[in-house]
Amino acid sequence: LLKKSEFIALDAASTLSGVRQRFSIPDGVIYMNGNSLGAMPKSVGDSLSAFVEKEWGQDLIRSWNVNGWYVLASQLGEQVSRLIGAAPDEVIFSDSTSVNLYKLVVTALNIKSQRKKIITDTDNFPTDLYILEGVAKSFGRGIEIEVVDRKDVIDCIDRDTALLTLTQANYRTSELYDLQEVSKAAHRQGALVLWDLSHSCGAMPIDLNGANVDLATGCGYKYLNGGPGAPAFLYVAKRWQEQIDQPLTGWMGHKAPFAMSADYVPAEGITQMLTGTPPIASAICLREGLSVFDGISLTDVRAASMEMGKLFIELTDDLCRDYPLSLVSPVDGERRGSHIALRHENAYALMQELIANGVIGDFRAADIMRFAFTPLYLRYIDVWHAVAVLRTILETESWNKPEYATRAAVT
Amino acid sequence: LLKKSEFIALDAASTLSGVRQRFSIPDGVIYMNGNSLGAMPKSVGDSLSAFVEKEWGQDLIRSWNVNGWYVLASQLGEQVSRLIGAAPDEVIFSDSTSVNLYKLVVTALNIKSQRKKIITDTDNFPTDLYILEGVAKSFGRGIEIEVVDRKDVIDCIDRDTALLTLTQANYRTSELYDLQEVSKAAHRQGALVLWDLSHSCGAMPIDLNGANVDLATGCGYKYLNGGPGAPAFLYVAKRWQEQIDQPLTGWMGHKAPFAMSADYVPAEGITQMLTGTPPIASAICLREGLSVFDGISLTDVRAASMEMGKLFIELTDDLCRDYPLSLVSPVDGERRGSHIALRHENAYALMQELIANGVIGDFRAADIMRFAFTPLYLRYIDVWHAVAVLRTILETESWNKPEYATRAAVT
After folding, report:
1. Whole-model pTM?
2. Chain segment A334-384, per-residue pLDDT in tens
3. CA angle, corner B326, sides to B323 and B331, nearest 5?
4. Which of A64, A371, B132, B150 has its CB surrounded by the most CB atoms within 10 Å?
5. Would the CA dihedral through B72, B77, B79, B80 be positive or negative?
6. ∠ CA(B379), CA(B381), CA(B385), 5° rounding?
7. Under an 8 A CB cutoff, do A250 and B70 touch?
8. Of residues B176, B184, B144, the one with CA closest to residue B162
9. B408 contacts in A (CB within 8 Å)?
10. Cα B189 from chain centre
11. Digit-coded pLDDT (tens) for B184-220
């Protein structure tokens, strides 16, 4: 078991230790919730000031051209493309993950128009499941959604499967799918595969092209540090772009939006996945989030995150062994994403007390605490402190407070 | 014809003259493009600073609760409700106008499930037409879109019409539909009516409840001054809320988003129209845009705008009578929205030269210049100056420059 001084030494030796300076981290806070809302890059302040003082405030409508608002969606797509192993013209930012899922699922059904089945797993992120329900309900071709256990996913894919759609890193347990292997299994049956990368993009190297992935989307505000409600990205492999046929055909996806023609003619390539006017202030925050990755290797980020997770598990096993805490996530770092979930019957109260003591993770119903390991701004010593605080809370039972008896709306 | 001094006197006498102080208007600029992107309320600066320094930067994930991010969508809905004659629980902000149109059109088709026809007019805003195409294509029930001439709209509504959808103020000509009369005509045939208020909300009093309107949406970044790509609102009349059945069923529209249940159970009322996580930085800008309307009467705004438009037409008629400029908008202020369109075969070059001389309107293909009259920040004297500049440009033919020969992408 490492000693406190050894955690400090790990920080000193880390190739990423300088990166934390690029983020705003409040004093006294150990922020372990980057899987839900990434911390704020300091450059957001200057960028939003420029937005206020120059772009919107002075240049007004001209900013669409002179300050690049008009090309932000594709510029952001280019920025993220190297983080997910895609070509720059295969990715664009638009809307929310939920809306993008709808566009991509319908696109897949239109490409595989002879097939009726969509397969996903029971523990997919809820909005993914809800959007599939929405597609099945509104898309009039007798589409069936099969929601199956994780272990049965591959066996369920058959010649009637149009699409397999999964989230790479489970939002609750953190368990990872093997992107390459599962994509291959879908392709063997002639099905398309759509990955939701919300809980993995920005946290680890992803190689969409290498795994021959057809379609993907992912959240801008978790590991990409794009700010609350940042736009989400859409990826469509080059080979399918000629066959895109998506239903939310708004003017930003038109070949010539300002020709104001009455008929919809899709733009070339990935641009036709756009719908309405993008929220520029939020897109500017996202640009800063993505810029943090300039010069950074996701291999380093991933290695540090796995190491932090391993140390967290070891320390918790040791310091908290007398308490009914259990590990929900895989022990093997290669098999989990960048957060770790612990189960405790009083998880809600425990997490409230952790937050009150400066350790910010989050709670997921019914009994799970999540802790994210984001080496861009989390230090090894933070991991040590977090477990020490957890231990004290368990020992003193300080979580047992009447105000924690009722659950608030927590995101 | 009023003299320059009389324009100054009109400003001095205006009940709205103090409101301009709440906006950032660059020196030397006469901003007549509020129909495309509203000017920036100065309070946006402080609000975004608070977002950076406190909300995201310090409170991080906790801001969803402690800084009200979670309730912003409905809070903004309440703010706009009084501007459009709706009850606070009939309106919510979400996504873009385009995405909202999709949700509302499908909702209408589900309510009127025995009917197959949607009627709109040929000169509707392009994204409205494109979204209708998208619905018809993806909604598998043989839906027919009838795109008819403005004058034929009412006659075309029949017992097979599920929905009539129109934009209240024409984006090009500014011509207004009579909201009440046209809604009544749709209802006589048992059809629903969906209004796009993008080019009218915030510019004039609108009474959705008074006109018994079923569904509506509208843009946040034009007359509502919510900033580029601000979220758009959705209105569903109380009487239809029990029957909402919309396809973009994301987690924010779920009855209990954080219960993370596998099945979609819609939230009560208008909240079920939400889909994904809202872009908070952009929503904060919009909140400031809507706050400007506190204590302001839209009747006053409308009266001043009509008067400015009347003076603009009179001055143009007089000063520019020797040039081939024609009025596209109705002369009668009651029949037009808050912008005026002029036709000139060199409209693009003329508008570029106007902008170069500090008069910012915009160009719409093929030959239209648009000028918006937004008395919250536009002064009567600005109208006088704008026409004087236009006259000089026409007289000196300074618009006839090689660099204006090619059209840039202008929004």
Report:
1. 0.97
2. 999 999 999 999 999 999 999 999 999 999 988 999 999 999 999 999 999
3. 135
4. A371
5. positive
6. 120
7. no
8. B144
9. 65
10. 28
11. 999 999 999 999 999 999 999 999 999 999 999 999 9
